[in-house]
């Protein structure tokens, strides 16, 4: 793939991202103005052949997309639909709920420090995919 083709693909991707975010932006009255501004800027820079200037214009477009993402609230619409909810893994099963486990903390006094240390070691072994984890400092 040539340099021009890679640049064109990068510009088109950034433009699609811009359109996606701009369509969700607020206030609604400014959406079309933002889209028209982006279209005009891309059309105006279509004839630029200097690679460093092309990269600078692309960087400016990507920065604009990033700014719009920050100031635009997320909705369920757009190219990237995400299911919302809270999912937690308990006892190896994915369950809906919150991440707080009531009564299973050392700070609550419901399990001993020794049991908490053993649980910690089990989690470390799981983190290292069953391999022996690095040595831990001795328990106090």
List the main descriptive attributes of the protein structure presented here.
140 residues, mainly alpha, 2 domains, two-stranded antiparallel sheet, 4 helices
Describe what this molecule looks like in 3D.
By secondary structure, this protein is mainly α. The chain folds into two domains: 3-71; 87-127, no CATH class. It has four helices and two strands, in the order αααββα. The protein has a two-stranded antiparallel sheet with strand order 1-2. Strand 1 (87-90) and strand 2 (93-96) form a beta hairpin. Helix 1 (3-22) packs antiparallel against helix 2 (31-44) and helix 1 runs parallel beside helix 3. The chain is elongated and about 70 Å long. The termini are far apart.
Structural class: mainly alpha
User: What number of structural domains do the residues give?
Assistant: 2
How many helices? The count is: 4
Output the helix-strand order: HHHEEH
Tell me how many strands there are.
2
Major β-sheet annotation? 2 strands, antiparallel
Overall pLDDT score: 78
Radius of gyration: 25 Å
Strand % is 5-15%
User: Which strand order spans the largest sheet, edge to edge or round the barrel?
Assistant: 1-2
Q: How far apart are the first and last residues' alpha carbons, in Å? A: 60 Å
Q: How helix-rich are the residues, as a percent range?
A: 40-55%
Describe the global form.
elongated
Uncertain segments: none
Write the layout of secondary structure elements.
Blueprint: H1 3-22, H2 31-44, H3 51-71, E1 87-90, E2 93-96, H4 113-127
Antiparallel strand pairs: 1-2
Helix pairs in contact: 1-2, 1-3
């Amino acid at each position: 793939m040539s340099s021009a083709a890679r640049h064109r693909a990068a510009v088109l991707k950034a433009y699609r991202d811009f359109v996606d975010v701009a369509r969700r932006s607020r206030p609604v009255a400014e959406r079309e103005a933002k889209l028209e501004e982006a279209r005009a800027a891309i059309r105006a820079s279509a004839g630029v052949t200097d690679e460093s200037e092309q990269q600078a214009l692309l960087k400016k477009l990507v920065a604009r997309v990033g700014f719009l993402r920050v100031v635009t609230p997320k909705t369920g619409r757009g190219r990237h639909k995400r299911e919302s909810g809270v999912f937690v893994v308990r006892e190896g099963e994915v369950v809906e709920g919150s991440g707080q486990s009531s009564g299973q903390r050392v700070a609550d006094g419901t399990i001993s420090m020794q049991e908490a240390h053993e649980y910690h070691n089990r989690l470390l072994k799981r983190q290292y995919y069953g391999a022996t984890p690095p040595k831990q400092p001795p328990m106090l």
